[in-house]
Amino acid sequence: MGWDDQAHWHPHVLRWKELEAICRCLAVRDPRLAHPGIPLLLIYRFAQGDADDDPNAVRATIAAGWRSLNLFSESEIVQAVQQTDTHVIPREGDRQWVWEATHGWVNSRDEAYSLRQAHNERFPFALFNGMLAEAERCATSGAPK
To answer: Does a structural domain hold residue 3?
Structure first.
């Protein structure tokens, strides 16, 4: 669904809100996986914010994830967030994600590094959207299924 390498990456598979729902669901299912924490740090590179996301809140969440490890100084955390936030933080007014009745949320930019685009018939939209719906249900209800 996405990958991050040094050749031709396609990491933008999750909206920021979806990433947060997944991480919250994991925390509900296993309290050792608190949010923000290790799950966020492992997968936030595959998320992309949208115009509705507050860039400062996104940065603060990423920083809190790094802090949760108790391994790095504050300056190292600031540096880590700065090095990666350009991939995750939306530019002002930049609309990346649009709702489409057939596929759900899709990345709207042709030049985007995303396989989650309406014209990509190989993307598993139904399975992916089912997983996201379960993550959101779990994250908001607070009860694992």
So the answer is: no
Q: Is residue 8 situated within a structural domain?
A: no
This prediction has a pTM of 0.88
Query: Would strands 97-100 and 104-107 be described as parallel, antiparallel, or unpaired?
Result: antiparallel
* Total tally of structural domains belonging to the chain: 1
Q: What domain range is 34 assigned to?
A: 14-141
Question: Residue 142 is encoded by which pair of tokens?
Answer: 């607070």
| Digitized pLDDT (tens) for each residue of the chain, 145 residues in all | 665 666 666 667 899 999 999 999 999 999 999 999 999 999 998 888 888 888 899 999 999 999 999 999 999 999 999 887 777 776 666 668 899 999 999 988 766 678 899 999 999 999 999 999 999 999 998 765 5
